[in-house]
Design a protein that fits this description.
Layout (H helix, E strand, L loop, with lengths): L5 E3 L3 E6 L1 H18 L11 H5 L11 H6 L9 H34 L9 E5 L1 H22 L3 H4 L15 H21 L3
């Protein structure tokens, strides 16, 4: 099980993680939460139905990583598509931010709840619902890191430049995290696929 998720009964998955991997995953999830930002909690006495109809931003985020997490719905080729994207964003981005935040919080909580094993590290066992939170966060982390690294489709292929970075390259640790997260994501998806 070391290094990849395996299916467990009931639609869940498990993976053995060492202490460093746990710390890296937790740190990245917390950084993702900081990037996404806090949610707007309704004040006491606020109408709960009003929160359902709250409007979000109509402009895309200026941070490229956030723009990748919250992309334009219809592109920006012409004025009509830009207006449609703005309208779509206004009514969907708050919910999308909330879901991404909930996913990352679930990841942090599941890591915090791990019981260490004698040789260090722990086995992370996820129920089916937790797997979906993890998939969302692993995807968001890869999108964020990939944007920061300016990863292109050519970089990701087996012959791509990500695999050939010299150890002296300052991007190397983040590239290694990016590739590792991709392997975790891939094996978690495989555990959820029907036989």
């Amino acid at each position: 099980m070391a290094g990849h998720f395996e299916a467990t009964p009931g639609g869940g998955a498990s993976v053995a993680l060492d202490e460093v991997e746990i710390a890296i995953l937790r740190s990245l999830a917390v950084q993702l939460l900081e990037l996404i930002g806090p949610g707007d909690e309704p004040a006491e006495g606020d109408d709960p139905l009003a929160a359902l109809f709250a409007e979000g931003p109509s402009e895309p985020p200026s941070d490229p990583a956030l723009a990748r997490l919250f992309p334009e719905a219809y592109g920006d080729e012409d004025k009509q598509l830009r207006e449609a994207s703005a309208e779509f964003r206004r009514f969907t981005e708050n919910d999308l931010r909330t879901r991404k935040r909930e996913d990352a919080v679930a990841v942090v909580r599941s890591l915090d709840a791990l019981a260490p094993v004698p040789d260090g590290g722990a086995v992370l066992s996820l129920a089916a619902e937790e797997c979906h939170h993890w998939l969302g966060t692993l995807n968001d982390l890869r999108l964020t890191i990939g944007t920061r690294l300016e990863v292109s489709d050519e970089d990701e292929g087996q012959d791509g430049s990500l695999y050939r970075l010299p150890d002296s390259d300052p991007r190397k640790p983040m590239v290694m995290a990016y590739l590792w997260l991709g392997a975790l994501q891939e094996t978690l998806i495989e555990t959820l696929m029907p036989d």
